[in-house]
Amino acid sequence: MKAIMVMFDSLNRHMLPPYGGDWIHAPNFARLAARAVTFDNAYAGSMPCMPARRELHTGRYNFLHRSWGPLEPFDDSMPELLKRNGVHTHLASDHPHYWEDGGATYHGRYSTWEFIRGQEGDPWKGQVADPEMPENLKRVRMPSYRQDWANRQHMPTEDLHSQTRTFDAGLEFIRTNHAQDNWFVQIETFDPHEPFFSHKRYKDLYPHDYDGPHFDWPDYKRVVETDEQVRHARYEYAALLSMCDHSLGRVLDAMDEHGLWEDTLLIVNTDHGLLLGEKGWWGKSVQPWYNELVHLPLFVWDPRDGRAGDRDDALVQTIDLAPTLLEYFGVAIPADMQGLPLNGDRRREAALFGIHGGHVNVTDGRHVYMRAPATAANAPLLEHTLMPTHMKNRFSPAELADLELAEPFSFTKGVRTLLIKGRTLLNPFHHGTLLFDLKADPEQLDPIADDDVELRMAALLVELMRDNEAPPSQFERLGLPSTGKVTEEHLLVRAQREQARRAAEPLPDLSDFPLLRTPIKALVADPRAAEVLRAHLPGLLDSEMLQLVAGTPLIDLAAMAGALVPTAALRAIAAELAELPA
Q: Which CATH class is domain 357-381+426-504?
């Protein structure tokens, strides 16, 4: 038995030809769909990158107990279980988060692994002098932004691109071992995650007139760019997606060449999608988890049943991939895994998804229910972990100063975890609790208020949370019962409808209010403008926060932190600034 997983990051389902993306050049995804089963109802679970990969290893949800971090000492790891049972597991990846503090225990679970350098500001090439960086629309420029431009200099041709070298490494494993038995290779590229760095032949697939600033790395925020700039960024993403399609085709060619369709499981998947201007948003994590982000592409070829060109509408999730691979190789599935093998008869009624500290969401395939915190405090929010690590660094001593020990969960194998006060960058309370009917509103543009539907979906949400042994703090944070029945008194859609409406209100049109592009420090230099800002945003000018955002235009601040700068206040400020004498 052999298995290949081709995993992409931020791969948008709705842009792929098998899912209706008719303007994208991706013939190999169409070729794959003709040879495999295309899943129409695949959903993410825990977001973003490393929480999704913990699910890939453990087959259970991550986000209700902790945020981004490594595998825990008590975790069952699918690649490690395969390794222990005589299956050679190999990881070939350019995903930089595997080699940061918050991902440091994943790659060691494989028999062998190979890391390709250079993606998204990976601290790869040391260069003291600043690299040449073009005029760019990106506003958030952390050190990784500068490093990325240093790295790009070392990938001037497609053969040197980190994605190409990742697939080179994975294909080398296949060529070396295709005649052997009992192996699993995971070929995982960070693409088409931002920045959308690709080479000319892929950009040429999407000809368009554009003479604006460089723009292939949108910030996570509301869209404030022009329609032309948005269209250009989408084409940059599309070019990188077409490069991913070419790399996928190389794997399909290898399966043809070595006759692997006869005895090799093939899974092609992703962790989540990415908003590219849809609903007026860029990126992920800072807005509700709309379907563009969580309704995933998934393709599976299983040589045992030989289903090719089929569609499957079963409600499946990332947590199903670990038990699928264990079952395929005849390895016992641990009791702690919640996922279901994809070729089994069992089906789930609903799927849970979200990010630690954010909305807790559930879908039954027809409706999507996004449960916000019951109060603006978004509390209590607690981390249950023995690996206190953020994405790129360890928890600070200050964060650990008041830690306690929690009682064990059934899946911690009798071990007590640390109990640490959690934190989240943005508060989901701002967006309110949302309910969507995907049949009537597939683009999730018009949330509904229906008490009967909300009651049913809230009951499904609570049932899944209890099945996952969600800690009591999560039920309290959401205003839901940890025991007993969900009743009308627990409903929140109507109670939070007005705040949800305010959060979804479009930003002002900059053609009408050009002063909103002026940096805040330039506005406050005029005492009259400063008084306008102070009247509508009293906390901004009179706190240390002004030091952080002084160089930021007001429109960009509103795009990144809508709870801080509500759209109504922004419109009022713009109107009053426009009335000031020049």
A: alpha beta
